[in-house]
Amino acid sequence: MCGIAGSTLADRATLLAMSERLRLRGPDASGLWQDEHGPGGLAHTRLKIIDLSAAAAQPMVSASGRYVLVFNGEIVNFRTLRAELESQGERFRSTSDTEVLLALWARNGAAALRQISGMFAFAVWDREQRELVVVRDRLGIKPVVYAPLADGGLAFASEIAALKAHPGIDLGVDRDAISEYLACLYIPAPRTIHRGIRKLPPGHLLRWRDGRTTVEPYWQPRFEGHGTISFDEAVARTQAILGHAVAEHMVADVPIGCFLSGGVDSSVIAALMAGAAKRAGAPPIKTFTVVFPEAAYDERGPARAVAQHLGAEHRELEATPALGRLLDEHIATFGEPFGNPTALLVHDLARLARQHVSVALVGDGGDEVFAGYPRYRGGLLAKTYRRIPRIVRRGIIEPLARRIPEDQSGRHGPRRIREFVAGASQTDSAMYASWVEYFSPEERGQLLGLSGIPTHPIAAAYDSLGSRHPLDAMQETDVRTFLPGNILAYGDAMSMRHSLELRLPLLDHRVVEAVGEIPAALRVKGGSKAILKAIARRLLPPALVDRPKVGFNPPLSVWLKRDLGRVVDERLTPQSMATLGIDWTPVATLLAEHRTGGRDHALKIWALLALDSWRTQQ
């Protein structure tokens, strides 16, 4: 786990400045390589996880001297690949996955991407062809941003902050990015908040040569299950693939642990880890969880029960409103507005875990891959709902739904019913967008003073998939947008803030591909996460599996009305909003509705706070 940066035009001082801004991503060592034939080079900061010796240092030059590599992430199947390469005559100086990746690239070029599994962002400089290739992993677990330079040059880095140390980049604000941020609470790839900086999308490869840059996909998720496989066969096959992935993700030369919420995703990971540790004769696994004083959000009981059943060494961290005061710090880490407050929980959980381990396995991706979100059930029910006569829907059901009272205690059922009714009569893509976007197009138009109505970024992603089974379309849309732009973004940013590596076996691409091939009906047979829950019942007592979903979220509504109320009053003012080009009137209405309990606008308020925090740091 590391930080990478590079440029086709930068001098040594600029590369060093970029590297310094990535220090938290790699506090153990740093390195620099400069092209002897002209300006440009590569920089690296290292967090030592596999092969702690100097032999694994980066930038790493291939045996022939032709290729230079900087790499962030882990190739989880590197041991198998290394054995294959050694059988073909390859010799290695280190025991690192970096050297295996470099040897594969030297032999096969971009075809090596079909062989590797894991999470990665890396760049390879071809000294012979004077070509730069930058790659992001299939699911977007590791970040990479890039910027075009004058005279056709290119710069890239793990974080926006590092690119801001490079001269000649357009740092003007992208107003369309602000609109998309208000819709999603993150800025979807390829945009960033800056006009001159772009995110490399997941599963994409960038090539730069002779002043020309191209970006193309090399892998895309597909959910389009077909065939006659039985449910039990699907469970057995998925468990075998997932068990293998977990074992590979446990390879490290440093202590490892597991984030455990008590939910099915992390519980399955912990159970598979415990089984692997026991077979290897290793010590009990270490588990970490966040607990809340607010009962509706707290999962300490289930997490403790799972940890006890597995014989884990378990630790808890209580979340408090004081986390909200870290807003400026965590926005600085992202380098752009980011509105999901769950990032604060991961921030503190990573801080606790780093005191004991350097690597933690997590259950992120379970909802998206195994169909766990309640909105998926809504999407499947929509077709039935639309059969109700329009006059009944519009004249009776929708007016009644709008009157459903708000609940700010953490129980989301009433809100979900209201949102389902409001969206279900629309087209599939517009319906789904209305459920996952926060500020509607109409609200964004009012806030930003736009003459036209902004588009739905999520609806556009949904429509790009063509005609699909509703569950396939919803899951694939989330895996392409919400997962990398939101969940994976805060996981990486907050863990790297504490130099902790997170690994996500549920997002091993072999797992994703296997689940995507299972027919949609089997993925939700008997309820959400049918396949994963069936695996869980094989590993854990049923009482620890069959329990209501809580979700990993802070009690933001409560915090904003109490401890963080003063922060809202100080930061969300007519003056601060005007500086951002946001009209105050709709903001004032939103704040009033939240304070009176008429609507729960906690996430929208937090999104505006995060936007203002970014503004004050410019």
Give the helix/strand layout:
Blueprint lengths: L1 E6 L4 H9 L8 E6 L6 E6 L13 E2 L5 E9 L2 H10 L9 H12 L9 E9 L4 E6 L8 E4 L5 E4 L2 H4 L11 H10 L13 E2 L4 E6 L2 E6 L13 H19 L6 E4 L4 H16 L6 E6 L8 H11 L2 E6 L8 H8 L7 H13 L4 E3 L4 H5 L3 H12 L4 H13 L10 H12 L3 H9 L4 H8 L8 H7 L6 H11 L1 H15 L4 E3 L5 H8 L3 H4 L6 H10 L16 H6 L3 H7 L2 H6 L4 H13 L5 H15 L2
Parallel strand pairs: 13-14, 13-16, 14-15, 16-17
Antiparallel strand pairs: 1-3, 1-9, 2-3, 4-5, 5-6, 6-7, 7-11, 8-9, 8-10, 11-12
- By DSSP, the count of extended strands is 17
Can you tell me the CATH architecture of the largest domain?
A: 4-Layer Sandwich
Structural class by SSE content: alpha+beta
Note poorly predicted spans.
none
Mean pLDDT: 91
Instruction: Estimate the strand proportion.
Output: 5-15%
Question: Which features would summarize this protein structure in a list?
Answer:
618 residues; alpha+beta; Glutamine Phosphoribosylpyrophosphate, subunit 1, domain 1; Rossmann fold; 6-stranded antiparallel beta sheet; 27 helices; 17 strands; 44% helix; 14% strand; globular
What does this structure look like?
- The chain is an alpha+beta fold and 618 residues long.
- It has 3 domains: 2-217, Aminohydrolase, N-terminal nucleophile (Ntn) domain (Glutamine Phosphoribosylpyrophosphate, subunit 1, domain 1, 4-Layer Sandwich), CATH 3.60.20; 240-367 and 480-517, Rossmann fold (3-Layer(aba) Sandwich); 555-618, no CATH class.
- The strands form 3 sheets. It has a 6-stranded antiparallel beta sheet. It has a 6-stranded antiparallel beta sheet with strand order 4-5-6-7-11-12, with helices on one face. The chain has a 5-stranded parallel beta sheet with strand order 15-14-13-16-17, sandwiched between helices.
- Helix 9 (327-334) crosses helix 27.
- The longest helix is centred in the middle third of the chain and has 19 residues, at 231-249.
- The radius of gyration is 24 Å and the shape is globular.
- The relative contact order is 0.12.
- The model has no long low-confidence stretch (mean pLDDT 91).
